[in-house]
Amino acid sequence: MTPKHNDPTISLIAAQYARANTPWYIGYSGGKDSSAVLKLLYMALAGLSRKSTRITIVYADSGVEMPPVRDLALSVLTAYQAECTAHGIPLSIAVVSPPLGDRYLVKVIGRGYPPPTNKFRWCTRRLRTNPVNRFFRDAGAESGILLLGLRKGESATRDRTIARYSSPNHNYLRQDRERGLLIFAPIIDYSTEEVWATLLENPIPRSIDAEALFALYKDASHEDSMIQQPSSPPYGRGRFGCWTCTVVRKDRALTSLVSNGYPAL
Predict the structure, then answer these.
(1) Are 113 and 122 in contact (CB under 8 A)?
(2) Number of C-alpha atoms within 13 angstroms, CB side, residue 118?
(3) What is the CATH number of the domain that holds 193?
(4) pTM
């Protein structure tokens, strides 16, 4: 996908924002998909004369994110907020985290909780979902738009979820039962190659360091071959989990980052 092919998505975001009468929220993880949403949002809003609807980026800091991923995500958020402010985009950042009693090491080491398994995967709700829900509850977000980097074709489970919450409006999913928000998925039909093209071939905003993000994905790949094009497998197709994850047998991304000399690991 070349930059010009992003035009319909940028126009869609701009049109939806222009008619918005409720707050906008963005779920950001620091990965390629949510980073592409931030880039497209910036390009859509930078050209609007009226930017009155408040936007809040919500980042869930579980406390057990891989340090290189967390560090890059937080640095991007700081720079992105400054760049948006400079261009009159009303944007704020909310970094949410679990309370002390729900943190991973407190529960597993301090309270003797069993580590998560496929049959008892308590970590997602305690470390991510509950803190995010608490943020929306405290913010009084009874209505609003939640932008997510959801895409079809990532996995069979994800596709089933998208189908279950689909709505007549193709880029929207029905309201989340716990939050009362309408989910807006502007890149729902993007392929992995199109996501990387969006990130790497658009120079603005400068705050999103696509080269650093791509290097992180590349270094997390367990393949040895050098691949020149970002659209080529395997680079850019993986996902970053928590460094404590006991659900997977072998965390290939973590192993590869260690092998590639990331000192924090």
Answers:
(1) yes
(2) 2
(3) 3.40.50.620
(4) 0.85
